[in-house]
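PROTOCOL LOG
Step 1. Enter all chains and additional molecules of the complex.
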Amino acid sequence: MDTFLLHRRLAEDTALALELPLCSVLLMDDATVPWLILVPRRSGVREIHELERVDRLILMEELALASKVACKLYSPDKLNVGALGNIVEQLHIHVVSRFKADRAWPGPVWGADGASAYAGEGLAAEAARVRKAFEDVLKGA
Amino acid sequence: MDTFLLHRRLAEDTALALELPLCSVLLMDDATVPWLILVPRRSGVREIHELERVDRLILMEELALASKVACKLYSPDKLNVGALGNIVEQLHIHVVSRFKADRAWPGPVWGADGASAYAGEGLAAEAARVRKAFEDVLKGA
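Step 2. Run joint prediction.
Step 3. Record the structure below.
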């Protein structure tokens, strides 16, 4: 049994939107940039290539799904997809919707100044909207 | 027929290490950070999820291969894998070997100061070494 535990830092900085077969889909608590994070529920994995092959292929399809959802919800100018982990080593993949007018364009958003948490119940509300969008895309709506 | 043309900026900033079934593997001309770039030879694609499913799955396996090669060659503290494209929209995926003492740690290397081209024939020599490492990993050496 794989006793997966989400890294404390990821848990603190995000809200859970939904669980896919492999990954938990988290919404970063940053109201300035629509920012999803996919975390494969596999313990002790730091790098994508350390996943079993079948998990890698599922991850790719869950990443593609999350990308479609982000495009549908936010119509970004560009997606930024990245697995860095210089600070939090537990494997997690960012799917960030970028805009030419956002706070870090054209640079990367990771480590850039200007993040700002959602106000009030904003984070939970947006996570619910993300969950609904996944469900709609999965239903072909 | 897909008349794929590598983006001029990518061609100028890199050397070709080798061609995999889907991706060209490029070596960035930056001697400060071992930096591979995979470019799927498909025209007009900006985002990973725009690839056909079979290409996405091949991409994942070529990314895993490139990650293994980078770990074998460079023993990085962490890989940074990312598809950004804020500046060059043609789909390309970075596989950067990061070190706790490198010029941007723990921040992302994209957009960070301090890049420095290889001297003399250094870029071509390193690209040849990368090619050899891919061949060794593919042979199971």
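Step 4. Note key features.
Chain B has a mean pLDDT of 97.
The longest strand of chain B covers residues 14-19.
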